[in-house]
Please model this.
Amino acid sequence: MGFAHNNVLHGNHFRKDWQRRVRTWFDQPGRKLRRRTARKEKAAKLGVRPLTLLRPAVRGQTVRYNRKLREGRGFSLAELKEAGIHRKEARGLGIVVDHRRRNLSEEGKALNVERLAAYKAKLIVFPRKASKPKKGDSTGDDLTAETTRAALPLPNPYVHEAPRKITDEERSFNAYRTARVARANARYDGVRKARAAKKEEEEANKKK
Model:
């Protein structure tokens, strides 16, 4: 190893006992088995309850992902109110509540209200005492009905249309030009209004 010019001298240490400091993952198969058994135990402990909590369907952030639907943190208070579920009652039914979330569109709100209604229709609430069922508990044939623990699937974000012929009106429609004209109209709207108002004022002064 040569040294030249006014450079820093090397301080390399090649005699460390590095074999003792190597991180190994020989316990990975054992951990995998342990996690699997823990999941089974948790599922058995839950009884007939769903394996996961119900969460809302929300749009992904940014232009890149907003065409996709994903599970959100929790249902907004407005959605729960429209579905007729109290926010304190919701957590007991396996519904997650997010008090900070606001609904920015009627479509998104309606989608989640439908989701809650579908969940509520499938829901079976077993009474603590079979002889004394409380308000909201399931009774009769509902208690012996077949249950599923699978989560409620997210709705399909795309409405598929049947194939059809393109009309003459659609062929003649110029999307780019229409968008540019609309943009120009919006941009110069204030200037045009001011010009028209000024013209009316000048005409009124002439009449005087």
